[in-house]
Design brief:
By secondary structure, this protein is of the alpha+beta class. It is built from six helices and 18 strands. α2 runs antiparallel to α3 and α3 runs antiparallel to α4. It is elongated, with a radius of gyration of 25 Å.
């Protein structure tokens, strides 16, 4: 099965005709540029460098993601960047899931790591699998991280990710070894994007009840103008379910507060399944109007009955609201898998 996984990863990086044509055109452009300044014999190193990069791309499974973009970036910045991805190929199994650190590129304060997850016993991994910010490296410094699903092989139930971690404060990643770990992942995700929300905005009036909450999060295009960044925030009091966009998400209140439209979205299992969504308005010309700001808060923070809320606020007057329709996008997950996957590998820092 492992052989099939690697065969599949290699098959994905076969160069398409577009990549070949772009490569030839790049070499021609570089050759024309060089010809004006140097003798024609200097074309050979350019061609050799391009072929060198192409060979690396074709021979390195970790470059399976978006080959044309990676190739062009490496060619324009440095023809030998690909060689810095050192093979690791160390794995760990837990809860019937096999995690393998395939390859890593460590440079200055950044670690780029290709990781695969394979389900050995069931069907918990699919093309929607998300590591849910549960991955880390054993460093004393805080870091920013991104994770991109770059491939999924249904036959072997294997998902491949590119993870990039950057130390804050420009702290170089140093030492002889590095430990990468994952605590959990979610899968069976569904999405509803740009769907109509079955609420009559023309029937919305003043809020029946409000409360002052401490925000867990603030966002929005005009957050500084309306919500500020300190103190309590006046929000709607949750009530009965008014509308259910999808399982796990409910509209629990809607109304005007001080002339601004508030729409409240209640989320169950937000911390375990990452259920979330947002609302926006569409005017008569089809233009989208995003909320001016939103406030996140929760009830029952330390209990099993915790419910998370996000309230979206629009600066639209009541006598103007009938010119708009309400739409939204919503995402939910159906499965959360926990475990303790950890791999320690030699740290090869690129100069």
């Amino acid at each position: 099965m492992l052989e099939k996984t690697y065969r599949s990863m290699n098959a994905q990086i076969e160069p398409g005709q577009e990549l070949i044509n772009d490569t030839i055109e790049l070499m021609r452009q570089q050759s024309r540029h060089v010809k004006h300044k140097t003798r024609p014999m200097l074309r050979r190193p350019i061609v050799a460098a391009a072929m060198f990069v192409l060979c690396i791309v074709l021979a390195t499974p970790v470059l399976a993601a978006n080959v044309p973009a990676i190739y062009h970036l490496m060619y324009l910045v440095s023809p030998d960047v690909a060689q810095f991805f050192a093979p690791v190929q160390k794995a760990y199994e837990d809860n019937g899931i096999r995690m393998e650190v395939v390859s890593a590129y460590i440079h200055d304060s950044t670690a780029e790591i290709y990781v695969t997850l394979q389900d050995l016993t069931s069907d918990r991994i699919d093309e929607t699998t998300d590591l849910f910010d549960s991955y880390s490296i054993n460093r004393a410094f805080d870091s920013a991280a991104t994770c991109q699903l770059v491939g999924y092989e249904k036959e072997t139930k294997t998902a491949t990710f590119l993870i990039r971690l950057t130390e804050w404060g420009n702290q170089d990643i140093a030492g002889s070894k590095l430990t990468f770990s994952i605590r959990e992942f979610i899968s069976r995700k569904t999405s509803l994007e740009g769907v109509a929300v079955g609420i009559d905005l023309g029937a919305v009036g003043e809020a029946e009840a409000v409360q002052t909450v401490d925000a867990l999060g603030l966002s929005g295009k005009n957050i500084g103008s309306f919500a500020g960044d300190s103190g309590g925030h006046v929000m709607l009091v949750p009530g009965d379910t008014l509308y259910t966009p999808t399982e796990g998400l409910e509209v629990t209140a809607i109304g005007y507060v001080e002339g601004m439209l508030h729409i409240q979205l209640a989320t169950s299992e937000k911390l375990t399944l990452d259920n979330h969504g947002y609302f926006y308005l569409v005017d008569q010309d089809g233009n989208q109007i995003q909320s001016d700001y939103s406030v996140s808060f929760a009830k029952g923070l330390d209990s099993d009955a915790r419910v998370d809320y996000q309230e979206f606020v629009f600066d639209i007057a009541p006598d103007e609201i009938e010119k708009y329709s309400l739409r939204g996008s919503f995402w939910t997950s159906g499965l959360r898998t926990e475990g303790s996957w950890r791999v320690t590998f030699p740290l090869l820092v690129s100069e």
